[in-house]
Here is the input.
Amino acid sequence: MGQAGGSAIRPWIFEFFHAPGNPAQDAAPEVAAAHFTACLELWQGAEPLGFEGIFFSEHHFGPGYSPSPNLLIAALAQRTRTLRLGVMGLVLPYYQPWRVVEEIGMLDHLTGGRLEIGTSSGIPQEMALIGLDVPEASARNAEAQAILDAGLRDGVVNHHGKYWQIENLRLVPRPFQRPSPPRWTTVVSSESARRSAQRGTKICTGFHPVERVRHIFDAFREEAERCGGPAGPDQLAIRRTVSIDADEGAARAASRRAAEALRAVLARDPRVTDHPLPDAPGPAHNFSVGEEEFIAGAPESVAEQIIVQCRAVGAGHFLANFGRGTTPEAMRRSYALFGERVIPLLRAALV
Here is the structure.
């Protein structure tokens, strides 16, 4: 593992926050309560292990316990001191964007300036359950982003669009971090990456094979340079599913289970395709899930796979999803092994 470039890889946790037990059934109140407590303790324990921070995800009507991830940030902020906390990403079409700006201001103060802002346009199969189709969600997302950017930048919003009419609306509290906390956008297409570069946000992607990720990141870099914005590794994150164990065979077996669980969750997602290349037929926001999504092995092998992928695409951030449906106890072991033996290698490996 040689060195290349000049930016170390920053390791994050990506937390789906899977529900306990059978996801098709409601957990008993005492089981759910114990799960919340165990997971808060788990995430708190990540702080001394050297993780950069935790990104939660927002999902609805499924096997996750994170429909309002900002509540998790507020709770965890009181238990931690250095971990950066964010959502990758908050689904803007579901919200009044002016209220999101106000909530961001509150959270940034509650975290002591450790907040990261991540947004997304939503998951089609989730939106369909409330009568929101992809074209409307995309239009709402673009308009909400404009309001969000203006509110964070100026503290006052004037906006006249299709969905919102806002006149001289002052939003408080202003964030602790000025002009705003770091802003991220989750993307799966080159088009979305270019729009993010125009807005000046960082981007994160996953699922795609490395070749496709590189193509998306190249589009971001090209557009950022055209706009005069930053385009280095610190602007780019790749998210992968990680299975780690001192026993290589056990890690591989866990990775196979994680792959089965992920593909089961994505079975209803209309964006999933078998054609990962940029010129594939169909909508530009399609994505495929290949073998490179799953990183597995003993710690040194896991570190090497992460470094190879980050260097191949020029990403300075790596988000590790340690599996879906795994118990907090198993996750704690993965955190510890990753923190003790992988993170030092990532922070020494330059992109």
In short: The chain has two domains: 1-81+187-262+289-351, 89-177. Residues 134-154 form the longest helix (21 residues). The domain at 1-81+187-262+289-351 is CATH 3.20.20.30 (TIM Barrel).
